[in-house]
């Protein structure tokens, strides 16, 4: 695949799940190279509008190719969508779409430092204009923190060994490249315990990327922002690619559809408890067999979507 191409996954299912009112105002929180944005625009009428977000300056630059008066791009993290929309006078929308994770152009460009397949600077920031690079974090973080990140976000059994190897190495010289990190991880994972289906550094790279980009907190905050922005009958559609993300989306929709599940079944229901759902028509959609065969990225994708009800949104912490 070309370094500049990103094949949208669930390209039929996702826009269909999102757009219910062609005259409406929609948000694509993850523009990437605009594969989904273009498909969403096709479903909108002349009155419809699409506002896209991406925190990657290269994605924002690519959005200039869409010359359509109904479209606008904002360079910001999707967690800030509520404040960013409010700044342009928008406080309610008809649909929010997220296709989370990294794009093919990010993974395929060695300069971005996301992949152990190509040697490049150890960066991994989606927003190259701010924040700490992976190399800087690996120099600064304590061994326990590095081990926790690799264990929690990479679900890696050998997290402590890998963290130990990183800390030992950085005393000699900083880990500056993806190649150096990949070789170090490979050396730290015992040969006879390796997963033959993937490179030994796969999980560690995933973990560090999630940490550097605060991906799980971004997702939690974006779901919350979307729920408070959506009008009744508005749609939320989220594509995720691994179980850590999908668990967050699943939990979000479970609570939103069944507020009573948050109550311990052994305890009496509190007086005045409101069990009205915040979302209905919650569905899980997987790619077709054909798409999974044609686009390897689609294999692990899961689309979860739902329809907002009229109940005003209450974020989990404040309940
Ligand atoms: C999987 S790609 C989206 C591809 C897009 N749907 C397409 O068809 O071209 C994910 C994109 O979301 C962006 N992204 C990821 N997390 C983000 C966040 N928290 N805020 C804003 N953009 C984010 C990434 O920079 C990347 O460009």
Identify the CATH class of the largest domain. Answer: Alpha Beta
Residue runs with pLDDT of under 50 for 5 or more positions: none
What is the helix content?
A: 25-40%
* Ligands (ions, cofactors included): S-adenosylmethionine
What is the CATH superfamily classification of the largest domain? Answer: Vaccinia Virus protein VP39
Largest sheet: 7 strands, mixed
How far apart are the termini? 47 Å
As laid out across the biggest beta sheet, the strand order is 3-2-1-4-5-7-6
Write down the CATH topology of the largest domain: Rossmann fold
Radius of gyration: 21 Å
Q: Domains counted in the coordinates: how many?
A: 2
Keywords:
Rossmann fold; 13 helices; single chain; SAM-dependent_MTases_sf; 319 residues; seven-stranded mixed beta sheet; alpha/beta; globular; binds S-adenosylmethionine; DNA polymerase, domain 1
């Amino acid at each position: 695949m070309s370094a500049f191409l990103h094949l949208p996954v669930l390209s039929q299912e996702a826009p269909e799940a999102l757009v219910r009112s062609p005259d409406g105002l929609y948000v694509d929180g993850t523009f990437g190279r605009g594969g989904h944005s273009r498909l969403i625009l096709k479903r909108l009428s002349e009155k419809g509008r699409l506002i896209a977000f991406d925190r990657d300056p290269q994605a924002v630059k690519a959005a200039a190719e869409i010359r359509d008066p109904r479209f606008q791009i904002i360079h910001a993290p999707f967690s800030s969508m509520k404040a960013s929309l409010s700044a342009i006078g928008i406080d309610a929308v008809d649909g929010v779409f997220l296709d989370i994770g990294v794009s093919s152009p990010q993974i395929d460009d060695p300069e971005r430092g996301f992949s152990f397949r190509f040697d490049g600077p150890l960066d991994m920031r989606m927003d190259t204009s701010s924040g700490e690079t992976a190399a800087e974090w690996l120099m600064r973080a304590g061994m326990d923190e590095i081990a926790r990140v690799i264990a929690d976000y990479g679900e890696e059994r050998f997290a402590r060994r890998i963290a130990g190897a990183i800390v030992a190495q950085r005393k000699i010289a900083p880990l500056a490249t993806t190649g150096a990190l990949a070789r170090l991880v490979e050396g730290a994972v015992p040969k006879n315990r390796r997963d033959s289906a993937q490179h030994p550094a796969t999980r560690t790279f995933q973990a560090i990327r999630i940490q550097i980009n605060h991906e799980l907190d971004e997702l939690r905050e974006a779901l919350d922002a979307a729920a408070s922005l959506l009008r009744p009958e508005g749609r939320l559609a989220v594509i995720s690619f691994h179980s850590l993300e999908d668990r967050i989306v699943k939990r979000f929709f479970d609570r939103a559809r069944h507020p009573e599940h948050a109550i311990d079944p052994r305890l009496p229901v509190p007086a005045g408890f409101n069990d009205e759902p915040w979302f209905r028509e919650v569905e899980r959609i997987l790619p077709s067999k054909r798409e999974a065969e044609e686009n390897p990225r689609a294999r692990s994708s899961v689309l979860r979507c739902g329809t907002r009800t009229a109940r005003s949104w209450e974020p989990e912490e404040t309940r």
